[in-house]
Amino acid sequence: MELIQQNPDINAYLAASETIDHEHPLVREVSDRLADDHPGAYSYAEAAFVYVRDTIPHSMDSGDPRVTWRASDVLEQRTGICYAKSFAYAALLRARGIPAAFCYQRLTEDDGSDPVIHGLVAVLLPGESAWARQDARGNKPGVDARFSLGEERLAWPVRPELGELDHPELYAEPHPAVLAALKAAPDRSHLDRTLPTEL
């Protein structure tokens, strides 16, 4: 699948915002610590991926009722669903000048029911000509997502026969439907009922 950069200006994928607040002291602190231990863009991008994947539990896996939507809050509260974790990972990348984009999949249950939009991050490392999608949602039995610039190692490859699909668009900011659902949810049980099913 060819990924489509929605904004031709690469600087859009480095920008800070209310959600991707990579200038926040906590984001900078985590970024600096990871960069000290993992010099070089590739090593840092992988380390930041592993950090978000493994040290911030996915709230649906852990049962945490809190809803986070700002990158610094995800890092501080150490919880979030796939979207929130993608915000934290993107903020850590952008904090080191590495372009990060938001991209999405439409996934379903094994019978094709209950569609939901799943959030990923695409990274563009120096010297690379193509974006590479990463899934930092967090592993669990049956899920083994890994950092990769070659063959994708996402949590779930799509099953077109069930109506699942990869959205090729690379967004500089989180999709409005995703952000609206997070901001409107007082807790995760409410969010579970209001997750976007389409973009």
TrEMBL record:
<dbReference type="Pfam" id="PF01841">
    <property type="entry name" value="Transglut_core"/>
</dbReference>
<feature type="domain" description="Transglutaminase-like">
    <location>
        <begin position="31"/>
        <end position="135"/>
    </location>
</feature>
<dbReference type="InterPro" id="IPR038765">
    <property type="entry name" value="Papain-like_cys_pep_sf"/>
</dbReference>
<dbReference type="InterPro" id="IPR002931">
    <property type="entry name" value="Transglutaminase-like"/>
</dbReference>
<protein>
    <submittedName>
        <fullName>Transglutaminase family protein</fullName>
    </submittedName>
</protein>
